[in-house]
Write a structure and sequence with these properties.
With 339 residues, this protein is α/β, with parallel strands linked by helices. Helices cover 26% and strands 25% of the residues. It is built from nine helices and 15 strands. Bound molecules: NADP nicotinamide-adenine-dinucleotide phosphate (NAP). NADP nicotinamide-adenine-dinucleotide phosphate is lined by residues 48-50, 130, 133, 154, 156-160, 178-180, 183, 223-224, 245-246, 248-249, 277-279, 322-323, 325, 327, 331.
Length: 339
């Protein structure tokens, strides 16, 4: 066991896009678990877009990380020592252990992972929070029907790539929007999207969408907001359903963009519905969602991709690269070996 615990703290609140100096790597002694606690050693750490919001000093659905505080986040870990009867040494677990090598936990909000179901990293992706976000955000809010046209923005990421595949399972025509030719090839050639375009090389999103969605758009799963969403809303059909999952195009802006511009008029005229959600509102149904996603995975109906950075010290870079779109699929950081 290493004698120290490397941790990544928030050093400064980012102005615009985060930079290296907004983070600080520190080393402290490995904590000792007390009564009713366990010590875990992280194997994979998840970096997620929501963490950008926690770096701001703005009240949201969760408290901001204080300056000098540990960057929070999910991780898959091994139990090293346990004083909790429900957890044993050697168990693989998933919980909010933060950007650090070791964590002490009282077991609340921690779930055991069965490594025989799928690789343990999937507990942070297809069989974890992003998978549940795709599952509930699409099915509960949009109820996609066979033959309907579903558009997904942020389509090649952890959530978006799963949304499109779930929509295909439901018999829909699926069109993705993502930021790279390699991502477009991944969507259309590897995971079954019917069409997709690269918003970084296409200038007229409206025209492109019109060509790719000749019957209009019945369902929109919005991961990005901004100009991409403006174009999608202009093409929605009567009674369209829009799931507002994320607005990543806005997360690093110093000044918020104008909005909602065309969107409200489109909702009015098309008698359509747009609904925001936070995945944890479906917490009671998580076991059902995980069971279904695991079954689709076993049946080969769902594919997933992971981008894995190595080393705790590279966690901030992995996070910033993900915000820049360098990832395809789920961005993770591997910080120790799984055995
Ligand atoms: N509501 C919830 O409970 C919930 C839960 C999880 C995630 N989310 C949201 O879901 C979205 C996707 O999350 P994820 O974990 O799956 O991340 P992800 O898609 O794997 O990674 C983020 C992606 O966002 C794209 N992006 C970055 N800047 C952009 C911009 N200005 N315009 C358009 N796209 C941009 C990049 O892909 P490109 O190369 O395509 O630009 C990047 O790969 C995020 O908005 C996140 O906040 C919401």
């Amino acid at each position: 066991m290493s004698i120290s615990n490397k941790q990544i703290l928030l050093a400064a609140r980012p102005v615009g896009f985060p930079k290296d100096s907004d983070f600080k790597l520190v080393e402290s002694p490995v904590p000792v678990p007390g009564e009713g606690q366990m010590l875990v050693r992280s194997i994979y750490i998840s970096v997620d877009p929501y963490m950008r919001g926690r770096m701001n000093d703005v009240k949201s659905y969760a408290a901001p990380v204080p300056i000098g505080g540990l960057m929070g986040g999910g991780a898959v870990a091994r139990v090293i020592q346990s004083n909790i009867s429900a957890f044993n040494e050697g168990d693989i677990v998933e919980g909010m252990f933060g950007w650090q090598e070791y964590a002490v936990s009282d077991g609340r909000g921690v779930r055991k992972i069965d490594p025989s179901v799928a690789p343990i990293s999937t507990a942070l992706g297809v069989l974890g929070m992003p998978g549940l976000t795709a599952y509930f955000g699409l099915l509960e809010i949009c109820d996609p029907q066979p033959e309907e046209t579903v558009v997904v923005s942020g389509a090649a990421g952890a959530v978006g790539s799963l949304v499109g595949q779930i929509a295909k399972i439901k018999g829909c025509r699926v069109v993705g929007i993502a930021g790279g030719d390699d991502k477009i090839a991944y969507l259309t050639e590897e995971i079954g999207f019917d069409a997709a375009f690269n918003y970084k090389t296409v200038s007229d999103y409206y025209q492109q969408l019109k060509e790719l969605c000749p019957k209009g758009i019945d369902v929109y799963f919005d991961n990005v907001g901004g100009e991409i969403s403006d174009a999608v809303f202009s093409l929605i059909n009567t009674r369209a359903r829009v799931s507002i999952c994320g607005q990543i195009s806005q997360y690093n802006l110093e000044k918020p963009e104008m909005g909602p511009r065309l969107i409200l008029m489109s909702l009015l005229v098309k008698q359509a519905r747009a609904e925001g959600f936070l995945v944890f509102q479906y917490a009671e149904k998580y076991p059902q969602g995980i069971k279904q996603m695991a079954q689709w995975l076993r049946e080969g109906k769902l594919k997933y991709k992971e981008d894995i950075e190595e080393g705790i010290e590279n966690t901030p870079r992995a996070f910033m690269d993900m915000l820049k779109g360098r990832n395809t699929g789920k961005q993770l950081v591997k910080v120790s070996e799984s055995d």
